[in-house]
Amino acid sequence: MTFVSLAFQSVRARPRSWVVGLLAAGSATLLTLGFAFLAGVEEGTRHSLIESGTGHLQLYHSKSRGVPTVVMDHGDAPELQPLPDFPAIEARLKAVEGVREVVPMEVGWSSVFRGNYLDEKLAVVRAVAREPASASRDARLERLASELEQTLKDVVRDDGRRAEAFSFLGEAEAREDQRALEEVGTPEFWARFRAAPLEVLEYLENRVARQVGEGESTGMEYLASDLEQFPRAFPRFELVSGSLPPPGQRGLLLGQGLYEQSFKIPVAALLDEVQRERKAGATFAQDEALRTRAARCVAELPDLLARLDAERARALVVALSKLLGHDGALDVLLREFLTLTDENFDTRYEQFQRELAPLLPLYRVRPGDTLVVMGTEGAFGRINVPVKVWGTFRFRGLGGDASRVNTLGLMDLVTARFLAGRRITSESEEVRRDVESLGMSQPLVTGDLTLQAAGIVEEEAAPVQPTSPEVPVAKASEAWPEHFTAVEQRGVSVLQAALVLAPDAEPEAVAARIADMAAKEGLPVATVDWSVAGGMLAGGVGIARVVLLAIAALMSLFIVLVSASTLLLLARERVGEVGTMRALGMQRRQVFQVLLTEGLMLGVVGAGMGLALGTAVLLLLVGEGVGIHDESLQFFMGGTVLKPRLTAGSVVGIGVGVLAVVVAAALVPAWRGGKVSPIVAMLKRED
């Protein structure tokens, strides 16, 4: 108790030593806030991943080379083996305490093909042609046919675009397309259109539309699942437009972010980008990138005009004349309207959304359209699967359209299996029967795939018959069946599954129960938690933790250097006092203990004050949380509010860490003070 009393009196008598305590207090305060916010970010990210498709645990085949991920890192999909007899495994898992839902899923990368402007015009005409016959329908179809005829005349005049299209075709195919293009200018062709519009539209799509260009494709990360079960298992899922595919029918839902970024017409998408940048504080006067986007709006006008039919064009002229206060040609009015400045942008953007957007074909794809989704490269090339778009979706409260999880495509498991090129047993049997029906009883490919010597085919090939320009009658393709059974979806070839647990279940305990069950019953299953399945989004939390620990290490080094210097200086000033204590019989060890106790006392008081101050700031200033208005951060915060979490473990760790740093800083001064001999110390005191 004497050491503590001496140390306390010494600290109280020397205010300069309080610097050490203040450093400890400041460090403890900053670390308390830092770790509390990091814990809040980690918890928010965990909730976001769990509630947007990852689940608490991901189940997969234990012999797989890779581990399951739901958020991919712009690489190949993980190498997973299909789970054997998934329905039986699902039944066993639901019997495990704490497991509420077992959601089969699959992830991957694909490309989505979007047609050119002529494809879109043909789609509009096709939609009208499929309406029940009526006078109004026939009148509208006649107007659209006239517009389509004018558009095709423009295609004929566009020699450069046609030459580019023909460069990718063989000579015979190019001649056939050229003949088709010449035919569309004849009265007989349009007479056939009025008699059988759907057949003619398919002919135009197959032979003429590609002469305008090949359209565009955009990358799409997809998540495949049971689309009937998925919304039930993940309540943050919400439909923005359209509907879910009916049970047993293939379909695609586009994330609202993907829909806005990749399927909106360029002019509208660019205006949205400018609006977001201006909300962040950018101006046309100071931001070159903003001026570039505004210039691109004007540059995209030809593309916009090519997508308009006569009805839309007339309505736009009326609306723009009203907004600008004078009449004019459509392209001139649009160019004037899209000449943007800091003074007029807010008004023009609001007018565009209110008056012009309803008159435009705002999106290149709408619910009900069919997209061609291109899968990965396989042995026979890239697999292209047509799939109907049923609507758009988002995960509510997880970052809006800027969030990664809202830029996914959500599809059924059967379509995903088609894209990956995997077949189930029944499909393989069907292929075998088809091969046998053609008289080929031997396997199509032998086991020996080495190159064989070339041979000459003596039989003369049949001559190629000239192709008739008549419009072909399309036959429905059964290559990609639109409907599937429950067995085809869940019964075979399931690669992974999300396990959604009961609210009071501990994921670690459930994972241990599943591992025990798998070991006892010989099931080849394993699990990973959200931190693994979350990919780079979960990895962001780990990076933040490393950065915070690095800051703490630098802070500790600073405290050690400053505290050691301060205490060493004070120890030198107290050499005479140390000599007196030694002359009165105090041993070196006791002097060392007194000086070290001073550092310990400063550390305890400083760390305690810092922890108290940090906790007070969290309780009084942060309260129920910090509002997050930046949508790009909301996913990591678990929503629109970040709730810092201060755990008992963090408090103990920070307190012990700060105290250890201060004590370490006090070791050298205490050791050097204890080494001073009484005679030298007394001489210093006399000086």
TrEMBL record:
Q: Which coarse location class applies to the principal site listed for this UniProt protein?
A: membrane
Protein name, per record: ABC transporter permease
Membrane-topology descriptor: Multi-pass membrane protein
Q: Where is the ABC3 transporter permease C-terminal domain?
A: 550-678
Q: Name one GO cellular component term.
A: plasma membrane
- Please give the start and end residues of each transmembrane region: 546-570, 591-622, 646-668
Pfam families given in the database record = FtsX
The record's comment on protein family reads:
Belongs to the ABC-4 integral membrane protein family.
**Gene Ontology molecular-function annotations:** transmembrane transporter activity
UniProt-annotated location(s): Cell membrane
Family matches, as PANTHER family: ABC TRANSPORTER PERMEASE YTRF, MEMBRANE COMPONENT OF TRANSPORTER-RELATED
* Keyword terms, alphabetized: Cell membrane, Membrane, Transmembrane, Transmembrane helix
Q: Which domain of life is it from?
A: Bacteria
